[in-house]
Amino acid sequence: MDSLPTSIVVLTGAGISAESGIETFRASDGLWANHPVEEVATPEGFAANPQIVYQFYNQRRRQLLSPEIRPNAAHSALAKFEHEFEGDFLLVTQNVDNLHERAGSRKLVHMHGELLKMRCLNSRLVYDIAEDIDFDTECKCCRSPGNLRPHIVWFGEMPFHMNQINRALESCDLFIAIGTSGNVYPASGFYQTAKIRRAYTVELNLDRTGSSFDQHVYGPATEVVPAFLDSILQRQGQRAHR
Ligand code: APR
Fold first, then answer.
1. Is the dihedral of CA 93, 95, 101, 104 positive or negative?
2. HEC profile of 216-227
3. Considering only CA atoms, which of 51, 34, 44 is closest in space to residue 132?
4. Any catalytic annotation for residue 100?
5. What pLDDT tens digit does each residue of the chain (242 aa) get?
6. Residue 218 Cα, ligand 1 centroid: separation in angstroms?
7. Residue 99 and residue 4: Cα distance in Å, rounded?
8. CB burial readout 25-56, b (16+ within 10 A) else e
């Protein structure tokens, strides 16, 4: 990409949090290798056995809140870029961890929800949550047990913020995917939407994914993300000094 971008959409997946110590989904020892998706990440699984689902998310929440889990250099580079880039910017994450926020990102949407939030099935109110919950935990709105579910988008459910995301994809001239295997729709199709609108598309990932981006940069996110974003900021600085 020779020209300086004016509008950027970044999509992140589990790979950007891997070096922070959070396992990805589809690695050989990943989350889905140890937990049947149908049981813990579908509305049917929750209806069949909510306790298994509560325990699955309680365990992931406890891990996220443990002191050794912190944002890494890739999260920090994205937060720094957001504040220094002079064009439009939107960070769309598939991740439910809060590492982007903790690194300082603000122009951010969680399209698959957030681990540190719960939702009341009755009132649909969304609450922050840090402690374990189970079927007997009362929601603050109805004051009755059994109403709370993780504020996470499960398979078969519509992701959040899709109107905002599609508007950003249709007007961006640079789309960057970081640390995602491109296995789950609609996120896996975002680069094609951007491409149709003549955006330049770049994939920064540890492994090949078979997606046909304009450019692929392979390596750990903590190395390739800072380097790639800095190259854009350098071009922005050079243009300013012409
Ligand atoms: N740096 C960069 N990329 C990495 C790193 C790393 N250190 N480690 C792993 N990766 C890459 C892997 O090569 C893989 O392509 O991150 C990707 C992780 O892929 P998945 O485990 O499939 O995770 P993701 O793409 O985020 O899954 C998307 O699927 O199950 C649903 O809701 C879940 O949001 C998730 C969605």
1. negative
2. EEECCHHHHHHH
3. 51
4. no
5. 778 999 999 999 999 999 999 999 988 888 888 889 999 999 999 999 999 999 999 999 999 999 999 999 999 999 999 999 999 999 999 999 999 999 999 999 999 999 999 999 999 999 999 999 999 999 999 999 999 999 999 999 999 999 999 999 999 999 999 999 999 999 999 999 999 999 999 999 999 998 999 999 999 999 999 999 999 999 998 877 77
6. 13
7. 28
8. bebeeebeeebeeeebbbeebbeeeeeebbeb
Give the residue from 207, 171, 213, 173 showing the smallest Cα distance to 191.
Answer: 213
Atom of ligand 1 at shortest range from CA of 207? 13
CA distance 109 to 184: 17
Gyration radius (Cα) of the chain, Å:
19
The residue from 75, 100, 112, 151 that is catalytic is 112
Residues 6+ away with beta carbon under 8 Å from 196: none
Q: Looking at this protein, which amino acid is placed at residue 46?
A: F
Task: Give 28 Cα–ligand 1 centroid separation in angstroms.
Answer: 12
SS3 content of the chain, % helix, strand, coil (to 5): 35, 20, 45
Amino acid at 204: L
As a whole number of angstroms, the distance between CA 95 and CA 90 comes to: 15
In whole angstroms, what is the distance from residue 153 CA to residue 151 CA? 7
